[in-house]
């Protein structure tokens, strides 16, 4: 059976990737299941650079096929912040504090000017092969308080006017259907088999 390592410690992301790879007969492993993985420093200047760092460093260390996701929220009124710093926005990786900081920063920004975009860069790496890179984005608005219980990260603040719901009010399938990660995964779906067999 083919095996793929998802280079993430984020369980929310890992769930979304399992749903893609497991039906394709991949055994999926995530970083939480491995010991002695060196800390990966996300030192890139773009989502894609960071995803490349995460994936390639693990392919090099373990000779494994690896998929990495670097993603984040770009808020127009904050000139694209927190962007690649989304996970570390309020210091450490704490969703609750990140959401609080975002609400604070947007306190004086009126409804109608609270537009934002989620971005994902996905990179798949394998030894002796050029990486496969895909991206996905989705637009929405930032609410004034949290709404919904599902999802992770900024999901309870990310509102889709067309649906009248936040990401945290959608089922996993509904979220995957429209989300930045879901869109990137769809592109991966289109390109993956050719990339995999192409020597
Ligand atoms: O669908 C999403 N719904 C809500 N929030 C999201 C989503 N996608 C990314 N985000 C937020 C979470 C985190 O604050 C940052 C990603 O940071 P990012 O470094 O890519 O991921 P991470 O540190 O959580 O896990 P890891 O690097 O181990 O994959 O954007
Ligand atoms: Mg990270």
UniProtKB/TrEMBL annotation:
<feature type="binding site">
    <location>
        <position position="71"/>
    </location>
    <ligand>
        <name>substrate</name>
    </ligand>
</feature>
<dbReference type="InterPro" id="IPR020922">
    <property type="entry name" value="dITP/XTP_pyrophosphatase"/>
</dbReference>
<dbReference type="GO" id="GO:0000166">
    <property type="term" value="F:nucleotide binding"/>
</dbReference>
<dbReference type="InterPro" id="IPR002637">
    <property type="entry name" value="RdgB/HAM1"/>
</dbReference>
<keyword id="KW-0378">Hydrolase</keyword>
<dbReference type="GO" id="GO:0046872">
    <property type="term" value="F:metal ion binding"/>
</dbReference>
<keyword id="KW-0546">Nucleotide metabolism</keyword>
<comment type="subunit">
    <text>Homodimer.</text>
</comment>
<dbReference type="GO" id="GO:0036222">
    <property type="term" value="F:XTP diphosphatase activity"/>
</dbReference>
<dbReference type="GO" id="GO:0036220">
    <property type="term" value="F:ITP diphosphatase activity"/>
</dbReference>
<feature type="binding site">
    <location>
        <begin position="180"/>
        <end position="181"/>
    </location>
    <ligand>
        <name>substrate</name>
    </ligand>
</feature>
<dbReference type="GO" id="GO:0009117">
    <property type="term" value="P:nucleotide metabolic process"/>
</dbReference>
<feature type="binding site">
    <location>
        <position position="175"/>
    </location>
    <ligand>
        <name>substrate</name>
    </ligand>
</feature>
<keyword id="KW-0479">Metal-binding</keyword>
<protein>
    <recommendedName>
        <fullName>dITP/XTP pyrophosphatase</fullName>
        <ecNumber>3.6.1.66</ecNumber>
    </recommendedName>
</protein>
<dbReference type="InterPro" id="IPR029001">
    <property type="entry name" value="ITPase-like_fam"/>
</dbReference>
<comment type="similarity">
    <text>Belongs to the HAM1 NTPase family.</text>
</comment>
<dbReference type="GO" id="GO:0035870">
    <property type="term" value="F:dITP diphosphatase activity"/>
</dbReference>
<feature type="binding site">
    <location>
        <begin position="8"/>
        <end position="13"/>
    </location>
    <ligand>
        <name>substrate</name>
    </ligand>
</feature>
<keyword id="KW-0460">Magnesium</keyword>
<comment type="function">
    <text>Pyrophosphatase that catalyzes the hydrolysis of nucleoside triphosphates to their monophosphate derivatives, with a high preference for the non-canonical purine nucleotides XTP (xanthosine triphosphate), dITP (deoxyinosine triphosphate) and ITP. Seems to function as a house-cleaning enzyme that removes non-canonical purine nucleotides from the nucleotide pool, thus preventing their incorporation into DNA/RNA and avoiding chromosomal lesions.</text>
</comment>
<dbReference type="GO" id="GO:0017111">
    <property type="term" value="F:ribonucleoside triphosphate phosphatase activity"/>
</dbReference>
<dbReference type="GO" id="GO:0005829">
    <property type="term" value="C:cytosol"/>
</dbReference>
<dbReference type="Pfam" id="PF01725">
    <property type="entry name" value="Ham1p_like"/>
</dbReference>
<feature type="binding site">
    <location>
        <position position="70"/>
    </location>
    <ligand>
        <name>Mg(2+)</name>
    </ligand>
</feature>
<keyword id="KW-0547">Nucleotide-binding</keyword>
<feature type="binding site">
    <location>
        <begin position="152"/>
        <end position="155"/>
    </location>
    <ligand>
        <name>substrate</name>
    </ligand>
</feature>
<feature type="active site" description="Proton acceptor">
    <location>
        <position position="70"/>
    </location>
</feature>
<dbReference type="GO" id="GO:0009146">
    <property type="term" value="P:purine nucleoside triphosphate catabolic process"/>
</dbReference>
């Amino acid at each position: 059976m083919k095996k793929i390592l998802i280079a993430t410690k984020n369980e929310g992301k890992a769930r979304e990737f399992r749903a893609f790879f497991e039906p394709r007969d991949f055994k999926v492993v995530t970083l939480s299941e491995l010991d002695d993985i060196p800390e990966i420093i996300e030192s890139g200047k773009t989502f894609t650079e960071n995803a490349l760092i995460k994936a390639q460093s693990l392919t090099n260390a373990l000779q494994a096929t690896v998929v990495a996701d670097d993603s984040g929220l770009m808020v127009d009124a904050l000139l694209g912040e927190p962007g690649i710093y989304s996970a570390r926005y309020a210091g450490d990786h704490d969703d609750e504090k990140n959401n609080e900081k975002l609400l604070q920063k947007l306190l004086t920004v009126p409804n109608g000017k609270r537009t934002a975009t989620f971005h994902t860069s996905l990179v798949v790496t394998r030894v002796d092969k050029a990486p496969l890179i895909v991206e996905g984005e989705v637009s929405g608005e930032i609410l004034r308080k949290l709404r919904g219980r599902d999802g992770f990260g900024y999901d309870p603040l990310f509102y889709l006017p067309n649906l009248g719901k936040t990401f945290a009010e959608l089922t996993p399938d509904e979220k995957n259907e429209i989300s930045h990660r879901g869109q990137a995964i769809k592109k991966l779906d289109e390109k993956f088999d050719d990339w995999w067999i192409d020597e």
